[in-house]
């Protein structure tokens, strides 16, 4: 129980740091701003296309070598070779510490390995660099659910939906958590 409380304190501290410093830490380009504006007013079908365009933009580091490390990390994850994925993605975050998607991919890998502490640390870095990263917010919500903290999960999921109103799976999670909080079973 004490370990869980310590872990929780680290999560809260990371989130406070993220939201306190996030705004000045990242400046989007005009193309991403336009995509996010479109995302907020789109229907479900259009949002899928726009979301993919956003992910494509987020996946561009500006360096072919760093893009290759991201690709190799993702391929290793897809193949189930999580230790190799962490190696590729750690090299990426070491060489391109301001590239949010490198941190996000590594957070995903750590989550798949059951390493929630390192996943949360990487998510904090993602959100510091890119406060509109709805994928990182959704991942953080999943972690809060695993830690049996539904109120925090709901808060983070709602933050993700404020950015991406049609985010797959998150709408269902919000409805489920709200129903549970109201004492209803779905």
From TrEMBL:
Q: Which InterPro entries match?
A: TPR-like_helical_dom_sf, TPR_rpt, Ycf3
Source species, domain of life:
Bacteria
* Name used for this protein in its record: Uncharacterized protein
Give start-end of the signal peptide: 1-27
Which keywords fit this entry according to its UniProt record? Answer: Repeat, Signal, TPR repeat
Report any Pfam family annotated for this entry: TPR_16
Start-end of the TPR repeats? 100-133, 134-167
